[in-house]
Design brief:
Layout lengths: L1 H8 L4 H4 L3 H26 L4 E7 L2 E2 L7 H4 L5 E2 L2 E6 L5 E10 L5 E5 L12 H9 L5 E2 L3 E3 L3 E7 L1 E2 L6 H9 L3 E7 L6 E6 L4
Parallel strand pairs: 7-9
Antiparallel strand pairs: 1-4, 2-3, 3-10, 4-9, 5-6, 5-8, 5-11, 11-12
Helix pairs in contact: 1-3
Length: 200
């Protein structure tokens, strides 16, 4: 916007009226310099860059007789915490949501939230769960797109594939196991931020 304004105003400067054409291009670049300085140097320095995540509540779909789970034939509990993610940066970005469970021996298990698209065409637990929940706009699927300085709220979907039932999952979290939400870069997988999970 600043760049467009300067470009529109520069022909009205008196000095440009008598200048040769080859100098008008140079004058245009001089007029545009403040816009480049603002967007490349000033704006990033005054922006509170970073991500924040807040957990609002937790829901565990472990009753196999509800939500159509019995019809699709798998026995994994589905953990769907309601979260709110804020992008404090000046630019849009995408993140993947993960859940890391740490036991008392400091051994970890990392769960990735259900993706909006899966690799391959085979029917998997992930694709089945996504199909079951995708018509509800309150669910978030990886990668999550975050607008600058905006908040995105919804429910992440984690399939707890190494635990047989929901009771075991909640008992594990109550017996010294801790949970951590991680936001990672979709391309390289780098950890961008981590936040402790609230008790279920």
């Amino acid at each position: 916007m600043v760049l467009a304004s300067l470009g529109a105003l520069y022909p009205f400067f008196p000095i440009s009226l008598g200048a040769c054409r080859k100098y008008q291009g140079f004058l245009f670049l001089v007029c545009c310099t403040p816009a480049f300085v603002f967007y490349l140097l000033v704006l990033p320095s005054i922006t509170l860059d970073g991500l924040s995540l807040e957990q609002q509540d937790s829901t565990l779909l472990s009753d196999r007789s509800s939500n159509g789970i019995i019809e699709i034939g798998f026995q994994y509990p589905i953990f769907t915490p309601a979260i709110s993610i804020i992008n404090r940066g000046a630019y849009s970005r995408e993140v993947n949501i993960f859940l890391r469970i740490i036991d008392r021996n400091q051994e970890t298990v990392l769960f990735r939230a259900v993706r909006s698209k899966s690799d391959g065409q085979n029917l998997t637990v992930e694709s089945t769960v996504r199909g079951m929940l995708s018509n509800n706009f309150r669910y978030l699927f990886n990668p999550v797109k975050l607008a600058p300085r905006q908040e995105m709220s919804g429910r992440a979907v984690f399939i707890i594939t190494n635990i047989e039932d929901g009771a075991t999952f909640t008992e594990a979290l109550g017996n010294g196991h801790t949970g951590v939400f991680e936001l990672r870069d979709p391309e390289g997988g780098q950890l961008l931020a981590s936040f402790p999970m609230a008790p279920i």
